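Shipment paperwork, digital attachment
Item: protein structure file
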Amino acid sequence: MCLSACSQTGTPSATGGGGVPASTSPTAAGEPVRIGMLLPLTGRNMRLGQQMANAAQLAVPTGHGAVLDVRDSDGAEGVAAAARAAIGNGDRILLGPLTAGQTGEVAGLSTAAGIPELAFTSDAERGRSGVWVMGLTVDQQVVRLVSAAHAQGRQHFAAFLPDSPLGHVMAQRLNEACAANGLSAPNIAFHGSDLQSIADGLKTLSAFDDRQKQVSAAATTPTPAAPDAVNPVSPDTNPPANPGAPPATPPANATPGPFPAPPFDALLLGDTGLQLANVINGLKANRIDPSQVRILGPALWEAFASKLGALHGAWFAAPDSATRHGFVQQYRQHYGTAPTPLADIAYDTAAMAGALARQPDGLTETSLMRPDGFAGVDGVFALRSGGKVTRALAIFEIGQNGGATIVQPAPKTLTQTPS
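Attachment content:
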């Protein structure tokens, strides 16, 4: 099903269909289907919430056949009260709330009412039957990165991650993705925020001391002399003049051999900001060379990729920004500013709900979980069982002077194998 952001009216066009009879009671004849939205319209996230509400209004404009019921998730009475009011008002689906904690508060209410909840959090752990996590998740990114790197011949994965909830989720997802690709379990190390923890952790993970010993051994091993016409037998086969003498010291200008590669050819990182700068310094100090190891990182890097030239060749997975141009243009025309990435998700989620609301089978789990998914402004996505959402992501590579370009486009369908 295509959710278009390029039409003159902003009304999403829908193709395809299917599904089963609605399990919820139908709306009275002639009445529009009500789509509830729980967004922060007050408090510190107020501007973000308003942008998301604006995007949803573009997806479900007046006269669409469905109507948005937007409520403040951060009001004095709390998000649970807002959800109860929406359910009591006859809303057939809830879009939101924004945060993981609020999603947990609302999940029990929406499930008890028998209506779907499409939350805007990126915490995949909040997903469950009837509650989908619509934000860009660690799971989606790691699955795409491992698949793409493995397709290019990477066989030995490792991770150097912050000792934080995010770091541990990334580690768990990397383990799962490696197993799904038939790879051996990755070597994973966690680090604290101090420089010593980062330095020691990378030194151990990369087996730096063992690699250094290999270089030293190669430099001190004498090279046998080649035989010549006068002495057809290598002179090294003759016993030394003084068998008890210590071995000769290699010349001071002897060139050591190439530094051995670490015991992995793909390394997942999870840091940003100053801590990422410290990790980059540690990579250099421990001879973790981009020519030998593919560095993988989070989509968060996209926001400051221009400053990451030291990680040239590194990959991250994210939506293809080219697919959102029509939506960005439309949003600017209506509101005079550029939308945030979360506004994209609000648009796609509202457009999907609005398109399904116009179908006789209504907003059921079967209708929402179309096998081929939906084509939105951030690419193709699909709702799966257990509250999971799969997304078609592009692979971006960081350049020599910073910045990032797409080296593998997002798949056009979710059944297509990423290359």
